[in-house]
């Protein structure tokens, strides 16, 4: 909530929401808000200012607090968990940071600004708004939306020296977990979409496709997946805005022209995944 607390609602013995009220967990001063929540390996990760607070959902006690960014005035924007890693984005920043899901160790930083500049050039972008506004992981790919409307897709691979099986334990909580894999960003195989929005990416949403029955997004049986982005306007970065034709409705005289490409848009990508096991899963992306 906006006052730095989390409200926890309980269910009764019949599985219905209890009418006896709720439990509050205070993460800090009421001057800052809790910006996002996610589930990581059976624990709640809550973002408060530049820190992440790890909470045990059974006893609602705080287990760990660690800094996601060294600047105290920064703010965690989004969190995405896969395997033994959690990718975290920071508000008004073009860098994402990878942390270990069990040891909370800082593992990798990825700044997407040089990659986007290399792919699209500097004359088509407003670097004041080249910040990360949306983040989602699906089928071992991380989709990154920016404030300039550019969307980047990065495969997540395990490094060759990190395949050793490990067991993580915490004596204070008697918590034991087996290692999975650490989702490092492989920027050499990253892709940038030439189709984007004219303003910030509002959301990125993965949707299973090609089946009448709903399935988990990370289910290896899903062969096709749609990724939907939402934002203001549409632009082909290969052409830019200067080559667009003005085909719209004129409202209140010629000075008020509504271009179809300036309206709110959603863009849909289709991912085709092989039937290989997750450790070697490959996906192709089509717009």
From TrEMBL:
Residues making up the signal peptide according to the UniProt record: none
Listed GO biological process terms: vesicle-mediated transport
Lineage top rank: taxon: Eukaryota
Molecular function GO labels: JUN kinase binding; kinesin binding; MAP-kinase scaffold activity; signaling receptor complex adaptor activity
GO CC term (a single one): cytoplasm
InterPro entries from the UniProt entry: JIP3/JIP4 (IPR039911), Quinoprotein_ADH-like_sf (IPR011047), WD40/YVTN_repeat-like_dom_sf (IPR015943)
Protein name in the entry: Transcription factor WD40-like family
Species this protein is from: Strongyloides stercoralis
């Amino acid at each position: 909530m906006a006052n730095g607390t989390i409200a926890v609602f309980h269910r009764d013995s019949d599985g219905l929401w209890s009418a006896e009220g709720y439990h509050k967990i205070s993460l800090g001063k009421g001057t800052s808000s809790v910006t996002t929540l996610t589930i990581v390996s059976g624990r709640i990760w809550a973002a408060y200012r530049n820190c992440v607070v790890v909470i045990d959902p059974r006893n609602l006690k705080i287990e760990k607090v660690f800094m996601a960014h060294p600047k105290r005035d920064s703010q965690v924007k989004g969190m995405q968990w896969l395997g033994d890693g959690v990718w975290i984005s920071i508000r008004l920043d073009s860098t994402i940071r990878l942390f270990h899901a069990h040891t909370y160790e800082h593992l990798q930083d990825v700044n997407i600004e040089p990659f986007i500049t290399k792919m699209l050039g500097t004359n088509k972008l407003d670097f004041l708004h080249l910040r990360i506004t949306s983040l989602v992981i699906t089928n071992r790919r991380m989709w990154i939306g920016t404030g300039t409307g550019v969307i980047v897709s990065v495969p997540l691979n395990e490094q060759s020296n990190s395949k050793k099986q490990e067991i993580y334990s915490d004596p204070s909580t008697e918590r034991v977990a087996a290692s999975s894999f650490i989702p490092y960003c492989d920027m050499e195989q990253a892709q940038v979409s030439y189709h984007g929005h004219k303003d910030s990416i509002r959301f990125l949403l993965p949707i299973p496709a090609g089946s009448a029955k709903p399935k988990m997004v990370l289910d290896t049986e899903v062969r096709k997946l749609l990724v939907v982005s939402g934002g203001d306007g549409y632009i082909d970065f290969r052409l830019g805005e200067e080559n667009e034709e003005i085909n719209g409705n004129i409202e209140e005289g010629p000075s008020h022209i509504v271009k179809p490409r300036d309206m709110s848009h959603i863009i849909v990508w289709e991912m085709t995944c092989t039937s290989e096991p997750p450790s070697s899963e490959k996906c192709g992306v089509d717009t």
